[in-house]
Amino acid sequence: MKYFLSELSGFFSYRKLKNYVVILVLSVLIFVIYLAFHGNYMERKDFIKNVPRESHQQQPIDDEFIKQEFEEPDNESLPPWRPEHKGGVNMHVFEDWCATSILQLRKNVLYPLYPHVRTTIKTLAIYPKSTNYGVRIFGYIHPNVSGEYIFAISSDKNSEFWLSSNESTKGLRLQAYVGKTGMEWAGPGEYGKFASQISKPVKLLKHKQYFFEVLLQHNEGVDHVEVAWRLNQRNSIFTVITSEYLSLYVNETSVLAGDTDNIPQTVASHEMHPDLIYIQRDPVVDMAREDLRDYIFQIPLMNDSYLKNIFPQCNYKPINVFDGAQMQRFHGIYYVHYSRVYPNDHTRQAHSAVDEMCFYNQDKVFKEGGGFVQYLKTVDGGEKSDLNWERSINVNPTDFNLNQPTVVIHTCKRVGNAILSEEDVMPVVDAVMNKLQLTEHTSELVLKRIVNVEKRVDGDAGGRYLLELELEDAKGQNMLLSRYFHVTTNKEGSPELPEPISFCSPEDFSWNPAARVHVILPVKKQGRWVIQFIRQMEKVYRVTKDENFNVIIIDYSSDDVDIHKALKKANLPSFQYRRLEGTFLKTTAVQTAIELIEDENSILFTTDLHLNFPVSIIHMVRKHCVQGKMIFAPAVMRLDCGISAHDPTGFWEIDGYGLIGIYKSDMDRIGGMNTKDFKDKWGGEDWELLDRILENRLEVERLNLRNFLHHHHSKRGMWNN
Questions:
Q1: Interstrand relation of 501-506 and 478-489 (parallel, antiparallel or unpaired)
Q2: Of the residues 474, 506, 538, which one is the last residue of a structural domain?
Q3: Residues 379 and 492 in one domain
Q4: Which of 87, 388, 514, 694 meets the CB 3.0–4.6 Å disulfide criterion with 322?
Q5: φ and ψ at residue 485, rounded to 5 degrees
Q6: Cα separation of 95 and 116, whole Å?
Q7: Which of 161-170, 308-317, 526-535 is the least confident region?
Q8: Residues 496, 521: one domain?
Q9: Is the CB of residue 584 less than 8 Å from the CB of residue 717?
Q10: pLDDT beyond 70 at 339
């Protein structure tokens, strides 16, 4: 008994009692934590189990289009979230985009990394009273009650609402949308017009954040978009999602146009593949189809020494040059002629209904003969005006391209290049191949395909061809013959000239494949477009691996992007950068760039912003510039508003000559840029330069260049505005 009492008193001693209490408290805490985690786990399990399958399996609009372009990164790096981000969401605006569908917005070359406006809004409802723009709204939603939520969206023109299953951008699913085609719209708060406007129930947890995106494309009308939600309960109504449930994805109060690291790229919003224009399986526009000319630089070029003494030589005869003493100012454009091409390069906007009949009306036979009816020959001789379902007709093949003079290009701005006939091309090709096969070291060469032919004609001077033929030798190796020939047609039955044509290689008229090309760009501000230009040059370098071109940017104190830093970061063969102060003057900027070029045997190519360059641009400039003889002035297509390079539709800029390739020695000889007359203004300097080019008896090679495109834009924020 004494032993028991002793043990009992020891058990209830203060020191041991204190230890037991601590153990008991810790046990209770562990049990409470277990219950909390178990409840949260069961709630998440119930969430996954009860989310409707349609919500997870719902395919985004244009799913095939999106999937082929975007793969979610394995490792996602989200910007740090801070409590002060609460109360608003990010909004990016893409201006000057005349489209109505979200698919068209995604094709915008600036989307989604280079918006015109970066701002924030406090509710998921906007009414900016503007036209022709796209919007991307993104951030986090924070529900304050766990439960099943139903979302709804309404907008004028097309819109989409995407929601992730957590804070990650990787789990986005399309929940609700207004239309696909650009024709659909709904009134403010009209959530029931289309079945697609209201989502399936989605389970959300309180104190969690969910990444979302709202996309809108608008052209005209009462512009609005609003996203509402409600609990999946009886008598609950949709209310617009407001600031207490929202937070920013990232704070953008002090970013520049080129700062894109924290702009999320998602399955809903990501850049188009830079080379998609060349990989579309069935493009709507023929010019977007693959053409051998687009990658002609990949065929190894035949060395001139290999062709020495094969072709007869002749004196160079200038084609289409000014032969007067002095030209009336700004009249040079009337002395420029276009070349014809073969095969069809599909630069004609045949798919466009705009000004379509202009092309046909230039054909004298078509216009004077009564239009298309004259080509329908009735077999039974009945009157064409009589209704007769059983009338038999005969139709002969007609190629309206071959009936068009090159001047049609100046009248109809959507017709593209004039086309050469096969009858024009094959006699010249046959004559060249005969010469090759009669020469011992080239006798085994065979013609694999005709890649490109261009022809210029000038009355008594005859015609000049640029022949580009892919040949194959006895070992199966391919090579490119790219050479200029002067061609005359012989009189039929002439005993002195039994062949149908005579051709020769003009002396000192050949292009230099090793000439260095300097791409010159004068800029002021326009940061997002400067970045696009640099990326275009990177694409040219990446695809061609051409080490022999140089980018020169003359910058008038741009403060919206660090151009020098962007150039140093870019993957380019070489670049030069010069910063100027004061009012933007194009002539001064270009002349500054010219003076940076030391090699007079190199080519300078003056360019502009807002352009889509074909990857063959450096090759095209080289082969159309002949030192002391010819400069190159490619025409660019101005895209219609809301149109991208993937489906190019627009008109050819036939009167613009600001984009030219010319040898440095020739530019120096004609006096460079006119910085005297244009020292305090700009506009017209390209026509004045063209006048002096022609006065110095330089030829001007002019072609509508495939996929050389000018993106539509307004003049807001440009240069000195």
A1: antiparallel
A2: 506
A3: yes
A4: 694
A5: -135, 140
A6: 6
A7: 308-317
A8: no
A9: no
A10: yes
Helix (H, G, I), strand (E, B) or coil at 152: strand
Token couple for 710: 């000018």
The candidate with the shortest Cα–Cα distance to 340, out of 398, 397, 409, is 409
Number of domains in the chain: 3
Q: Are residues 100 and 175 in the same domain?
A: yes
**pTM, to two decimals:** 0.85
In a domain, 30, yes or no: no
Separation between Cα atoms, residue 186 and residue 193, nearest integer Å: 7
Residue 101 inside a domain? The answer is yes
Domain that holds residue 632: 514-710
| Between residues 715 and 56, the one the model is more confident about | 715
Q: Which of 486, 506, 526 is the last residue of a domain?
A: 506
Which CATH number belongs to the domain containing residue 153 in this structure?
2.60.120.260
pLDDT tens for residues 629-639? 999 999 999 99
Same domain (yes/no): 482, 553: no
Q: What region does 219 belong to: left with phi over 0, alpha with psi -120 to 50, or beta? A: alpha
Distances (CA, A) of 382 to 206, 329, 386, 394: 81, 58, 8, 13
Confirm if 433 and 366 have CB atoms less than 8 A apart.
no
pLDDT digits (tens, 9 = 90+) for 82-105: 999 999 999 999 999 999 999 999
Could you report the per-residue pLDDT of 103-119, keeping only the tens digit for each? 999 999 999 999 999 99
683 vs 1, higher pLDDT? 683
More confident residue, 76 or 165: 165
Closest listed residue to residue 418, CA positions, set 654, 619, 644, 611: 654
Which of 10-14, 313-317, 365-369, 708-712 has the weakest average pLDDT?
A: 10-14
The number of beta carbons lying within 10 Å of the beta carbon of residue 508 is 11
Q: Where are the alpha helices (DSSP H) in 558-698?
A: 563-569, 586-596, 617-623, 664-669, 685-695
Do residues 500 and 356 both lie within one domain? yes
Strands 549-556 and 517-523: parallel
Residue 433 buriedness (CB in 10 A; 0-12 / 13-18 / 19+): middle
Does residue 96 share a domain with residue 66?
A: yes
- Average pLDDT of the segment spanning 523-532: 93
pLDDT of amino acid 278? 47
In a domain, 426, yes or no: yes
Query: 440-467 burial, b for 16+ CB within 10 Å, e for fewer?
Result: eebeebebeebbbbbbbeeeeebbbbbb
Mean pLDDT of the 416-437 span: 94
Classify residue 383 by its DSSP letter: -
> In whole numbers, what is the pLDDT of the chain averaged over residues?
87
Looking at the fold, whether 457 and 591 belong to one and the same domain comes out as no
Contacts of 20 (CB under 8 A, 6+ apart): none
- Supply the CATH number for residue 550's domain: 3.90.550.10
Query: For residue 203, is it within any domain?
Result: yes
Q: What are the tokens at 409? A: 């290009």
